[in-house]
Amino acid sequence: MNKKGVVICKNCEVTTLGKYCNNCGQRTSIDEVSFKETFQDLVNGLFSINAPFFLTMKMLLINPGKLLREFLKGKRKIYYKPVSFFILTTILYLIVRSLINYDPMTTAGVKVDGEILAEAGKYMVKNINNIMFVFVFTLGVFLKIFFYKKNTLAEFIAIAFYMIGVYTIIGTFFMFYLKFNNPNYKEVPVILFLIYMIYAITSFFRSKSIVVVFKTCLITLFAFIFYILFGFLFSFLIVWIKS
């Protein structure tokens, strides 16, 4: 770098100015690969301006409608991508569940009759990070069915990834209460998610009409029921094939 700050980008070899290349966006201060650089890239990828998780989380909590509208209209750089958001929240859930040794099948007092059914339940809980994808798509499909004139199915699926990410965060925090306080309120995260869905969808459509609220309640209910049915059926088939 010369006195004027002009450098040649090591990625695309274009003369540029500043901390980032004007052509490809790579940092101009790239040197040898180091542990510091690798860790910094990880942090930047999760929490920096390139992928602002905390900004996205803040907007999802205080003004989800604005985030969803802006993301669908093309503001993709300033918000954490919906699929990445969903994956990160799922990873955090799995880490916390492992650290506190939380087992929904026993801690919540769930009793299942039949060896195969019990094993299917355990399989579903163990592989919840994969089966949660079903919840995303059932929610997206029912959003499209009830609001079919508003947005495309792909757009509703993107919204669903954000919504289920929030549901996962609710479940992650409430897991501590179920584990260490009272395991008999396992339905509370679902109720909180329903309230959040009403808040988010009415904010997204800028309408608090009773019709929108009622549709949102039905969407959440049907999406959750079909998610449980499909998830358990899939788990049952896997256990049955292996047995």
TrEMBL record:
Presence of the UniProt keyword Transmembrane helix in the record: yes
The keyword Transmembrane helix appears for this protein: yes
Keywords attached to this entry: Membrane, Transmembrane, Transmembrane helix
Stretches that traverse the bilayer: 83-100, 128-147, 156-176, 188-205, 217-241
A Pfam short name: DUF3667
Protein name: DUF3667 domain-containing protein
Origin species: Tenacibaculum pelagium
Lineage: Bacteria, Pseudomonadati, Bacteroidota, Flavobacteriia, Flavobacteriales
